[in-house]
Amino acid sequence: MTNITKNITVDLSRKSNARVVFARQNDRGSRTLNITLTDGGAPYFVPSGTVAVVNVLRPDGANASFGATVNEEGGVTYTLGLWSLTHEGTARCSVSL
């Protein structure tokens, strides 16, 4: 299986930060999101020790939260798990710090 890392930049000061990441239904851990945060275009570094969580809303309406990693660059890294990709359609994700 091919592992793919998708680099995403999210600006905290924007109302809409929608980004599209394509993944296959029932994929098992091969799609990693590397999320860089900015605030008004300026880098926003997440301090080490901060708890990062990715919240997932599946197309069937079910939602769950999963632990993510604060990476060395001060961003957030998360690998999509099977639960997020079991249903056909769009899963919506958000990050909580």
Can you tell me about this structure?
This protein has strands at residues 4-11, 31-39, 42-43, 52-57, 63-70, 76-79, 92-96. With 97 residues, the protein is mostly beta strands. Strands 1, 2, 3, 4, 5, 6 and 7 form a seven-stranded mixed β-sheet that branches. A hairpin with a 2-residue loop joins strand 2 and strand 3 (42-43). The N and C termini lie far apart (31 Å). The mean pLDDT is 88.
What structural keywords apply?
0% helix; 97 residues; seven-stranded mixed beta sheet
User: How many beta-strand runs?
Assistant: 7
H/E element string?
EEEEEEE
Shape: globular
**Low-confidence stretches at least 5 residues in length (pLDDT < 50)?**
none
Mean pLDDT: 88
Main beta sheet: 7 strands, mixed
Label the structural class.
mainly beta
**How many DSSP H or I helices?**
0
Bin the helical content: under 10%
Distance between the termini: 31 Å
Work out the strand percent.
Answer: 35-45%
List the helices and strands and how they pair.
Blueprint: E1 4-11, E2 31-39, E3 42-43, E4 52-57, E5 63-70, E6 76-79, E7 92-96
Parallel strand pairs: 1-2
Antiparallel strand pairs: 2-3, 2-6, 4-5, 4-7, 5-6
